[in-house]
Automatic annotation (TrEMBL):
NCBIfam families: DECH_helic (TIGR03817). InterPro entries: DEAD/DEAH_box_helicase_dom (IPR011545), Helicase_ATP-bd (IPR014001), Helicase_C-like (IPR001650), Helicase_put_actinobac (IPR022307), HRQ1_WHD (IPR055227), MZB (IPR018973), P-loop_NTPase (IPR027417). Residues 326-478 form the Helicase C-terminal domain. This is DEAD/DEAH box helicase. Gene3D superfamilies: P-loop containing nucleotide triphosphate hydrolases. It holds the Pfam family WHD_HRQ1. Residues 1-66 are annotated as: Disordered. It comes from the Bacteria. Residues 99-285 form the Helicase ATP-binding domain. Residues 56-66 have a biased composition (Basic and acidic residues). GO terms for molecular function: 3'-5' DNA helicase activity; ATP binding; nucleic acid binding. Keywords: ATP-binding, Helicase, Hydrolase, Nucleotide-binding.
Length: 812
């Protein structure tokens, strides 16, 4: 089988929490004493009939007082005065420590909680350094580069820099340089801006290939700020790591050696991840000295409905509907809240449902809830933020556009519709409430899938575990090769450059020469083609030319779909969602990478079905698990979409199947796999009739649980289970990275295999369904239509496999 990519117990607690004096409060004049304690808010949410039993766990995090320090005496007095003018008298201890490292020339990562003042920790030394540089005799003075994962965050930070540096006059000249920057402004920015805010994509495609035009900026580059660096993981993080190595190489040629200042949500071993990302030693500052109010964190499981889905499986009420109810109730209580949703469509849907229900209570309340997501104009976003600050707006249904550091304070509650994929993101989202040192409520509403169900019944996996390590692999040859070409196009590569790009670089160069991408002349490698080398890769790791989604009647470009996802999402007959509208795909032209769609409103969704074959290319590591084996290595996956199903929107009932004629695709990647022997199958009472279903069910659940152990989404990985695999000659389950060359997820799975598969076993065994459901073994992306599956067989199989499993120490 294969796949493509407890009851409530709350005692209200009220604490007197010292107000944060480090940052001004942007709250409305509403008296803090008039707002109910978070425990009281939760009690009210749970008071409706049938609600209390939906809360499976409540965690109380006590308040914490802040610890102040003083800015290092090397910080310019004008900068300290400008900060104090914003109402910030003294820094928190971690801010002062980070600034000290920056002044000493140490690259440093600040990995502290949401609203702990990370921005100020790097901004103060940067501003001080720019002021020092402005007095240099070379005219331009020192420069700094700021990188954010999104354009919206860079623009938001630029506004903050302008506000705080206003008293410093023209010595600080910040500017945003990205794809939206008008052409007439770009030359001024290259020549005169000394604090340039951009994103890794623009650095890769725009700045580095044009480095001669940026020579004066790069020559004077003193600091590189990398904000929200925990988002640089997997393939995207691996690409950004190589972009930063190209930047360091060019800086060295121009005579500079910038200090890297990184800001991260709380993460495991932040200095290790930051060093892997930048390629330089990084000191970590992770002792959060900022104050925190009491946080009440509830885990919430929607109830089962009377509906039945695929194979008659029970269906839970959706996290979307449940979250809309909670957002409605919070608004009625006058509690300022944000509901985080994974998709833009989900954010819009929750806001619409909440508005409709609020209008039944009080028409004026309906106007006090809105959606907030990517794709809005900047002025629309700022208007929503201002309305939330002032109290005019009580609730937002938001995508992660609101998670990444954009300044929204004054919230009392956060509802999270579905586990966001990592503990780091979970705490980042929960931290958006209670930002002024006051109490806050956070509620995680479980979706109907194995990981969410497991977490709401195993709170220790969230509250007693450290946040994840950031997984990235800069040495992935599929990532490294195009960046070697880009580097050679910028300045010819020499042997002395190769250590900068990692140990795999030397072996790749002859392959690139054989492909006629590079040519060796004397002692250096040169880019040989007319086209831009930077266009060889999309650093977001999408793999190939994106497919343009075009409205057939008007020719209007609606958006794009990643090349790797096109076969399963925009095949002919597919239902395609875009900004809340529904379209049917009329034609997919793979040669021109265009999908023609027309607006429609079908009463069904579509799901692609595919076939997958996997072959082992090389086994890197193999360890015995009793008589079976656990392996990690390179594989080749051949996948072909062969048909699609039409399913009713609510129940998932299959209405029909349509054949497709699409070419097969191959993927060379990394995988973890495990085998079992005949003796193990006998011990587990697995006969040939149920073997396929038991393996398939274990594969599904293990894919669903892997994001708890590796920083990935289930859509980043795939799996194959085969009763007799030709390469192992045994029943085998594979889980592989869905990216060329791998992304580090399968490697992480190998090194945490005992814990990962133990959690998988528990997720299946503890589910209350009889034969399998979306909360345990059914998968929304199953290429076989979730057939066959055998829940009890999977439990027995994993029990036997784990009985003799040795502990495997993680290496990441």
């Amino acid at each position: 089988m294969h796949d493509a990519l407890g009851p409530l117990s709350v005692t209200p607690v009220t604490h007197s929490v010292p107000m944060a004096k480090n940052h001004r409060s942007d709250r409305s004049p509403t008296d803090a004493a008039s707002r109910p304690a978070p425990g009281t808010v939760l009690d009210r949410l749970a008071s409706a009939p049938g609600r209390a039993s939906r809360i499976t766990h409540t965690e109380h995090l006590p308040p914490r007082e802040g610890r102040h320090a003083v800015w290092p005496d090397r910080i310019r007095a004008e900068v300290v005065a400008a900060v104090q003018a914003k109402g910030i008298e003294h820094p928190w201890a971690h801010q002062a420590r980070a600034a000290e490292h920056a002044l000493d020339g140490d690259s440093v990562v600040v990995a502290t909680g949401t609203a702990s003042g990370k921005s100020l920790a790097y901004l103060v030394p940067v501003l001080s350094g720019l002021l020092d540089g402005s007095e240099a005799p070379n005219g331009r003075g020192a420069t700094a580069l700021y990188l954010a994962p999104t354009k919206a965050l860079a623009a938001d930070q630029c506004r903050s820099v302008k506000e705080i540096s206003h008293p410093l006059g023209t010595s600080i000249r910040p500017a945003v340089y990205d794809g939206d920057t008008p052409v007439e402004e770009r030359e001024w920015i290259r020549q005169y801006a000394n604090y340039v805010l951009t994103n890794p994509d623009m650095l890769h495609r725009g700045i580095l290939p044009s480095h001669p035009r940026w020579s004066s900026f790069l020559k004077a580059l003193k600091y590189v700020v990398i904000d929200e660096c925990h988002t640089y993981r997997g393939v995207f993080g691996s690409h950004v790591a190589q972009v930063l190595r190209r930047l360091r190489r060019l800086c060295a040629r121009y005579g500079s050696s910038p200090v890297f200042l990184l800001a991260s949500a709380t993460a495991a071993e932040p200095s290790v991840a930051a060093s892997r990302l930048t390629g330089v030693p990084v000191v970590e500052v992770a002792d959060d000295a900022s104050p925190r109010g009491e946080l009440v964190f509830a885990l919430w499981e929607p109830p089962l409905t009377e509906l039945h889905g695929e194979k008659g499986a029970p269906v839970r009420r959706t996290a979307t509907a449940e979250t809309a109810d909670l957002l409605t109730d919070l608004a009625v209580q006058g509690v300022r809240s944000v509901a985080f949703v994974r998709s833009r469509r989900g954010a819009e849907l929750i806001s619409v449902i909440a508005q409709e229900r609020l209008s039944e209570v009080d028409r004026s309340l309906a106007r006090r809830v809105a959606a907030y997501r990517g794709g809005y104009l900047p002025e629309e976003r700022r208007a929503l933020e201002r309305a939330l600050h002032s109290g005019e707006l009580l609730g937002l249904a938001a995508t992660t556009a609101l998670e990444l550091g954009i300044d929204v304070s004054g919230l009392d509650a956060v509802v999270i519709a579905g586990y966001p994929g990592t503990r780091a993101s979970l705490w980042q989202q929960a931290g958006r409430a209670g930002r002024s040192g006051e109490g806050a409520l956070a509620v995680l509403v479980a979706r109907d899938d194995p990981l969410d169900t497991y977490l709401v019944h195993h709170p220790e996996a969230l509250f007693d575990q450290p946040v994840e390590s950031t997984v990235l692999d800069p040495d992935n040859p599929y990532v490294l090769a195009p960046h070697l070409c880009a580097a050679a196009a910028e300045i010819p590569l020499t042997d002395d450059d190769l250590p900068l790009f990692g140990p795999a670089a030397e072996d790749l160069l002859p392959q690139l020469e054989a492909a006629k991408l590079l040519r060796r002349r004397t002692k250096s490698w040169h880019w040989t083609r007319r086209e831009r080398a930077a266009d060889l890769t999309d650093i977001r790791g999408q793999g190939g030319r994106p497919v343009q989604v075009v409205e057939a009647g008007t020719g209007r470009l609606l958006g794009t779909v990643d090349a790797g996802a096109a076969h399963t999402t925009v095949h002919e007959g597919a239902v395609h969602l875009h900004q809340g509208r529904t379209y049917l795909v009329r034609e997919l032209d793979l040669d021109d990478s265009v999908a023609l769609v027309q607006e429609a409103n079908p009463p069904y969704a579509t799901v692609a079905r595919d076939t997958t074959a996997i072959s082992v290319l090389e086994t890197d590591i193999e360890v015995p698990w009793g008589a079976g084996r656990l392996c990690y290595g390179s594989v080749e996956v051949t996948n072909q979409v062969v048909s699609f199903l039409r399913r009713k929107l609510i129940t998932g009932e299959v209405l029909g199947e349509t054949k497709l004629d699409l070419p097969p695709r191959t993927l060379r990647t990394r995988a973890v796999w495990w085998t079992v022997t005949e003796d193990q199958l006998d011990a587990a009472r697995i006969n040939p009739e149920i073997l396929g279903g038991a393996l398939h069910a274990a594969e599904h659940a293990s894919i669903g649980m892997l994001p708890l152990f590796a920083t990935c989404d289930r859509w980043d990985i795939g799996g194959v289970s085969i009763p007799l695999h030709p390469d192992t000659l045994l029943p085998t389950v594979f889980v592989y990275d869905g990216h060329p060359g791998g992304a580090g997820f399968a490697e992480r799975a190998f090194h945490t295999a005992r814990s990962w598969l133990t959690a998988t076993h528990e997720a299946i065994a503890s589910c209350e369904c009889d034969a399998g459901c979306p909360s345990c073994i059914q998968s929304p992306k199953c290429g076989n239509g979730n057939d066959p599956l055998h829940k009890r067989g999977a439990v027995r199989l994993l029990t036997e496999l784990l009985r003799e499993a040795p502990p495997v120490r993680p290496s990441i």
